[in-house]
Amino acid sequence: MMTKTKTWLMGLTGLLLMGGLASADAAPKHIPAGYSVDTIQIPDEIVLGVGGMEFHPDGHLFICTREGEVWRYKDDKWSLFADGLHEPLGIYIDQKTKEVWVMQRPELTRLVDEDGDNVADVYETVNSSWGLTDNYHEYSFGLVRDRYGNFYGTLNTSLSWRGWAGSHRWDIGRVHDSKMGRSAFYRGWSFQVTLDGRFVPWSSGLRSPAGIGISPDGDIFYTDNQGDWNGTSSLHHVVKGRFHGHPSSLTDHPGYQVASASTDVKLLSDYKDHERKVAATVKRLNQISVTDYEKLRTPPAIWFPHGELASSPGEPVWDLTEGKFGPFAGQVFVGDQTKSNMMRAHLEKVQGEFQGIVFDFVDPMHCGAMRNRFGPDNALWVGQTGRGWGSVGGKRFGLERIVWDGKTTPMEMHHVSLTKDGFTIVFTKPVDKKAAADAASYSIKHWGYEYRAEYGSPKVGTTDVKPSRITVAEDGKSVHLSMDIVKDRVYEFIIQSGLTGADGSKFTNPRGWYTLNYLR
Fold first, then answer.
1. pLDDT tens across 254-286, in order?
2. In which order are the strands placed within the sheet that holds 100-103?
3. Pairing with 410, which of 196, 250, 294, 305 sits 20 to 30 Å away (CA)?
């Protein structure tokens, strides 16, 4: 445990005032009717590269930043709660006890305000069982907690392609000459930290898992970036023992280790012994074929088409406002760091596994949309960062909120659901029934992605599809498209301009992408 001297960035008062909400510098090109974006003004003294956000029971928004600080914001006032952290990329606040935890690169930390002055006095290490080197790509992401009090986070692989790193340590753990490897313990894993502080490796095969979220039913999901072993960006359901596809992480899996590589490395001799064991395990992993790895892998619940929809997705959050954010209650919202957009997804279970449809929602925002939270005002708050690879919009960082006007129903595909002989498209409101019955109103195609060690994948086997029969619901709010369907494909649905709402309203986001892994 470490006691930290209180630090005020702002001088004697420790408080900054700023003029609050303002309209966005440039309105998004795509935003559904009835929605708007407000920009939160950030004082010049604050560099707010958002790494995590959470609302406190008192209404303050707590924001941890990539610069190592935790800020409190409410009613146009900012104050510093903690600093000196190592790039925290997740924060959690217990809504009953008001305790604060942050996910730093090397550890999960509890921040304690002992004297009630709204500044953390104690920084307590809860767990630090994973490894970390000087490799910049070894991010640690979080943070969610289940109903039993267990925390969950995700650990990035190490960037280590041959000839780039110049470090033998970074070259450890690459499988089939992929660009990402495992330079330290449990890189490429999701993990659990129990209520009593124990570290439990949870699932393997993660690549660059920048966002983690938990559904109202307690199901945990994470997003991953396109790259080696991941044909395009994706959303995955986390289950203990599951392998998500990136084999470098199996270096730390007991079922693949040639000899157990102890995590208790204190002396140089310990490290050399550890390195020998890791090298032997990696040699074994390189003898396993890509085909066999694919058989082990559980595919993602949703693929995000690269460049068209997403390139670096952030955390998934669920709309639990019960309709106070519009007609999308219960759906999942995911931002993207590169495209700076907000996406909307609808999940369903088929053969016991999640899959579903994703749409663009608001596009673009000020910069990389990495962290989202629904606030007490029922708006979707979006924390942003543009540092690193860059992002659409050009800002270094930002904080915005997406607001619904409380009355307007936009003309959108609400969701698409798989049936035994095709798909049913459900709309947010009635459509023109005559146009809906016309096959020319729909453009449908499907493709796959190749599972491989190379970076990303092109679309494979793109095929156009024509519905064999169209059935429009009497109320005009849904349409069933009968067609031949095949699994392990992404189906793209595009509503053509001839199909509008019964009231003449047009679709803001006429494209959707359904990931079909399992048939009904």
1. 999 987 655 555 555 666 777 888 889 999 999
2. 2-3, 122-127, 108-112, 100-103, 91-93
3. 305
Single pTM value for the model? 0.94
Report which of 512, 439, 427 is spatially closest to residue 476, judged by C-alpha positions.
427
Distance CA 342, CA 218 (A): 23
- Residue positions counted in the chain: 520
Q: How far apart are CA 191 and CA 136, in angstroms?
A: 20
DSSP-based three-state secondary structure for 281: helix
Q: What is the DSSP string of 44-86?
A: TT----EEEEEE-TTSPEEEEETTS-EEEEETTEEEEEE---S
Kind of pairing between the strands at 397-404 and 35-40? antiparallel
Domains and CATH numbers, the chain: 20-404 (2.120.10.30), 413-516 (2.60.40.1220)
Sign of the alpha-carbon dihedral angle for 176, 181, 187, 189: negative
Q: ∠ CA(37), CA(211), CA(249), 5° rounding? A: 160
In the chain the first and final C-alpha atoms are separated, in Å, by 53
3-state helix, strand, coil in the chain (%, to 5): 10, 40, 50
Check if the beta carbon of residue 280 is closer than 8 Å to that of residue 289. no
Query: Three-state SS for 292?
Result: helix
Q: Tokens 């109103």 label which residue? A: 441
Strand ranges in 130-232 using DSSP code E only, listed in sequence order: 140-145, 151-155, 158-159, 180-181, 189-193, 199-204, 211-214, 220-224
Q: Within 13 Å and on the Cβ side, how many CA atoms surround 404? A: 23
Give the Cα separation of 208 and 415 in Å (integer). Answer: 28
Joined tokens for residue 510:
């006429």
Structure tokens at 356: 């579903």
Integer Cα distance of 20 and 41 in angstroms: 5
Beta bridge partners of 334: 316, 343
95 burial type by CB count under 10 A (0-12 exposed, 13-18 middle, 19+ buried): exposed
CA of residue 149 relative to chain centroid, distance? 21
Greatest Cα pair distance, the chain, in angstroms, is 77
Phi/psi at 362 (5° precision):
-125, 130
**pLDDT by residue (tens digit) across 376-421?**
999 999 999 998 778 999 899 999 999 999 999 999 999 999 999 9
User: Cα 59–65–68 angle (5° rounding)?
Assistant: 120
Contact 453, 175 (CB under 8 A): yes
Distance (Å, rounded) from C-alpha 72 to C-alpha 208? 28
Least confident span in 41-55, 135-149, 154-168, 452-466: 154-168
Task: Region of 208 please: left (phi>0), alpha (psi -120 to 50) or beta.
Answer: beta
